[in-house]
Amino acid sequence: MNFIINLLISALVVFGLANIMPGVSINGYGTAIIVALVIGLLNAFIRPILSILSLPITILTLGLFSFVITAVIILLASAIMGDSFHVDGFWYALLFGVVLGIVNSVVGSFVTSD
């Protein structure tokens, strides 16, 4: 049940950010649910591989390279979703990923199970 709540909240944040940010477009809330699911799956399976491969540069940049990995995940989600979810470039993906992560962390702290 907690997974579904987190997914719907993430979809709401994705939909809101896509309507606010100029470089991000989305077709509707149903697409936002799919995008949230795709981003979650990419974070679960692809992000650890990218983190391990980029460990030396992440250490060298004191962890700042993880923002680049976040932007790559968002760009991959945009490529998978095609025209229904589109991010214009790297900088929009970076901003979108950072804001999405911050909002999900804040909202996730309120929606915790005891």
Per-chain topology:
Elements: H1 2-20, E1 24-26, H2 29-53, H3 55-60, H4 65-81, E2 85-87, H5 90-110
Antiparallel strand pairs: 1-2
What does this structure look like?
The protein is mainly alpha-helical and 114 residues long. The protein has one domain (1-112). The protein has five helices and two strands; from the N terminus they run H-E-H-H-H-E-H. The chain has a two-stranded antiparallel sheet.
Shape: globular
Strand order of the largest sheet: 1-2
Identify low-pLDDT runs.
Answer: none
Quaternary form: single chain
Mean pLDDT: 92
Largest β sheet strand count, sense and barrel closure: 2 strands, antiparallel
Helix content: over 70%
Alpha-carbon distance between the termini?
A: 13 Å
Radius of gyration: 14 Å
Share in β-strands = 5-15%
Order of helices and strands: HEHHHEH
- Structural class given helices, strands, pairing? mainly alpha
Feature tags:
114 residues; mainly alpha; two-stranded antiparallel ribbon; 2 strands; 77% helix; globular; transmembrane
What's this, in brief?
This protein has helices spanning 2-20, 29-53, 55-60, 65-81, 90-110; strands at 24-26, 85-87. It is built from 5 helices and 2 strands, in the order H-E-H-H-H-E-H.
